């Protein structure tokens, strides 16, 4: 609950500080005094919409602060710990400032935070409703929330939502896969063709260089043979060939060495040349004999070289790199095949999630229907206490047919929402014998207020109510016994919580454990709203004003005193 509230430069409030207690605190005052502005500030402080229009004229920001008591608020403490916000003892300070440029500055404890943090924090301990509470009550999602809280189905609904998220995840993955299928198939066809093309040519390391040399030999084979023959003729086959005349040359040199022994070395050199020429003749002869020329082989070599050239040009790689390219394409093709197998996996996962989802949806729907009878009975009992003697609330659940619905039952398909299969509608009749009709169409403002309070009372029996409930004029349109009944119900609800309530009804105001009066005054040509906590005498005069207007006669004052004493008793 809030133990201390500070508002600065917010609309009509220049500076306001309030100490608040548990129980029922009522805010009263003339219309237009600024009561609802306090609740607007509370809504903003707990993450609601904030408007720069609420910044007091002439100021550059508004500032809101609240000290929250964390006693017994385990859910709130858990949230603070999860988010890393520290607190001292059983209290924490929350602060929000809104600048003229629309930027907000938020702190929880000593740490900077966001508006979302405030909103989530508020959900753990407070509910804030204005005089348009009927809009909240008429929202079908909120009606379903009332039934689920009554039936203690929040845990099951959480499981359903988790299963729905999983189902949507796999459904989207499958949809994305199918969307890209055509592109993937085209890529697969290209990969298969390229792998087949490379493997058909199957280039080998060093093959290109070897074939290039062979091509050169084959292309020049005839000229080589002719040159080899010419060399052999000059060496030994012609009449005056080198090797034929060389023995005579050697013999002449031998004669010289006989005459001049010192020339023996020259003879050795010429004999060595002669031996070398004979060796060269043998080598050339062997090469001539090994020389092979085939036009067919030349065509084959040139065709092979052309294939290799095409591969190099097409893939912009060398023959040495083509093997790595082939492996990369094979790997990509294998990955595609695995992805193609993923389609079956994705479909299986989606179908498995749908089976679990349907089971949870059927279970949730069955338990809701089982809870309806008791829920209706208890709400009707509470409405009776609130003066709606002939009132009846009827809960209608149905499944919405949808040709594209995920859940099939018989020959029909049904729509799945975040809350399950069920669509809900509260039906209401205020008088006996009348056929219930949709609550949104038939209930008056006063009837809606009492139905809302009846629902709050019923839920308070099933699960702990929020520690703080902020209500803005929910008793609008009530009077007499109906207002009396609402006052009693509010007093009862406030036994274990803090209720802050704006009221124009004296019965409800008298039931408050505390009363705060909001007034406005003129100061320096400006309007300023102020708040004051009333003691017993002040409350008596304020109640007298609510009963009889500005003329505080002794009769009106006595009526106010009796009303206060009655409620106090």
Topology diagram in text:
Blueprint: E1 2-10, E2 13-19, E3 23-28, H1 35-45, E4 61-69, H2 74-83, E5 91-99, E6 104-108, E7 111-113, H3 115-123, E8 126-129, H4 133-138, H5 140-150, H6 154-179, H7 181-201, H8 207-219, H9 221-237, H10 242-259, H11 264-290, H12 295-315, H13 319-385, E9 392-399, E10 407-409, E11 412-414, E12 422-429, E13 437-438, H14 439-442, H15 445-462, E14 468-472, H16 480-493, E15 498-502, H17 506-511, E16 514-523, E17 526-533, H18 536-548, H19 554-568
Parallel strand pairs: 3-15, 3-16, 8-14, 14-15
Antiparallel strand pairs: 1-2, 1-4, 4-5, 5-6, 6-7, 9-12, 10-11, 12-13, 16-17
Helix pairs in contact: 6-13, 7-13, 8-12, 9-11, 10-11, 13-15, 15-16, 18-19
In short:
The chain is of the alpha+beta class. The protein has helices spanning 35-45, 74-83, 115-123, 133-138, 140-150, 154-179, 181-201, 207-219, 221-237, 242-259, 264-290, 295-315, 319-385, 439-442, 445-462, 480-493, 506-511, 536-548, 554-568; strands spanning 2-10, 13-19, 23-28, 61-69, 91-99, 104-108, 111-113, 126-129, 392-399, 407-409, 412-414, 422-429, 437-438, 468-472, 498-502, 514-523, 526-533.
Describe this structure in words.
By secondary structure, the protein is an alpha+beta fold. Among the domains are: 1-125 and 468-485 and 496-534, 3-Layer(aba) Sandwich (Rossmann fold); 185-333, no CATH class; 536-569, no CATH class. Helices cover 57% and strands 18% of the residues. It has 19 helices and 17 strands. It has helices at 35-45, 74-83, 115-123, 133-138, 140-150, 154-179, 181-201, 207-219, 221-237, 242-259, 264-290, 295-315, 319-385, 439-442, 445-462, 480-493, 506-511, 536-548, 554-568, and strands spanning 2-10, 13-19, 23-28, 61-69, 91-99, 104-108, 111-113, 126-129, 392-399, 407-409, 412-414, 422-429, 437-438, 468-472, 498-502, 514-523, 526-533. The strands form four sheets. The chain has a six-stranded antiparallel sheet with strand order 2-1-4-5-6-7. A hairpin with a 2-residue loop joins strand 1 and strand 2.
